[in-house]
Amino acid sequence: MYKGKKVAAVVPAYNEEVLIEKVITTMPDFVDLIVVVDDASKDSTSSVVSSLQKKIDRCIFLIRHEKNTGVGGAIVTGHKKALEQGAEINVIMAGDAQMDPDDLPKILDPLIEGDIDFSKGNRFFNGEAWKNMPRLRFYSNAGLSMLNKIASGYWHIADPQCGYTAITRQSLEKLDLDALSRGYHFENSLLIQLNVQDLRVKDVPIKAVYGIGEKSGIVHWIALFSFSFFLLRAFIWRLEQKYIIRDFHPLVFFYFFGIMFLLIGFFLGIYLIIFRLFIDLVKETSAIFAAFLFTSGLQLVLFAMWFDKDYKRSMN
Question: Which domain holds residue 268?
Answer without folding.
Answer: 250-315
